[in-house]
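User: quick one, fold this
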Amino acid sequence: MEAMAAAGHEVRGLDSLSPAVHNGKPSYIRSDWDLRVADVRDPDAVDDALDGVDAVCHLAAMVGLGVSLADLPLYSDVNVTGTAVLLDAMGRRGVSRLVLSSSMVVYGEGAYECPRDGGVRPLPRAATDLEAGVFEPRCPSCGSALTSSVVREEAILDPRNAYATSKLAQEHLAANWARLTGGVAVALRYHNVYGPRMPRDTPYSGVAAIFRSCLENDAPPRVFEDGGQRRDFVHVRDVASSNVLALAACGDGPGADGPGADGFAGTLRAYNVASGEPHTVGEMASALAGAFGGVIEPKITAEYRLGDVRHIVASPEAAARDLGFRARIGFTEGMTEFATAPLRAPAATASR
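Assistant:
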């Protein structure tokens, strides 16, 4: 909301303020902003919130991996049904611009090269390999070791857990909405987001916030596998900036320019939101711990979760070309800030 207001938009928020991530209304929400507390699955609340609105940035979602069968109903209900309710209301209200917060998880594993077979997509890693400490995926054809490379938006999508499947479903629903209404939709595939105001002590946070919560609790961050998983960590202020630029690309608003203005109505365009500066999870844990004071060392556990992917590193070039987006906050600067930035206390934490 802050970034949109600073860009000249009139803003209205709709948030369930779930107690898993919020202890009441956040203090940084200005009193003159219109924040509606409701669930995105509530058709009446959503319809009411869209009154007078001409564009939507849709960030509402149940996050986290969703690694068990018991997670499937909740992820499907919140992320898929909630998105369908929103899009239906947008169609009836004539709202024609949508920025959807998607995720890198829609890709599954990143891009890989085999010395014999060229570009390949590895199969999900076997539990027997992971149990034996064999974490790198193998070529599905010849079994050779692979080299990871950057994934681009045109890659085949291969969601490998409940959350990933629900995010891809959101993209498909948004594409359906765009075709049926002639609207313009931009899906932003966030990579590993981190930064101030993330919730503490909740398993639904990203890995950076989970590690930061460990440090806050005087516990070592527990790094799964061998810590060699490669990711792209992108600062939350850069993510906010990507939303502002994507909305402008949809046309007809402050700073409007880009796909919406160039005749892409009726389509969904997807973009990686990434720094272009990959690091391993182990490097991230060490950077956070060092900036936190260096007393607590991360612990490499060799534990694993089925559904996790090994390497996912993105090309940020399409977002730079079409949206004018480039991440501005570097890894060292961002992690140093995040190490001591205040985190939000969920209601469940605050009540203990």
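User: anything notable?
Assistant: The mean pLDDT is 91.
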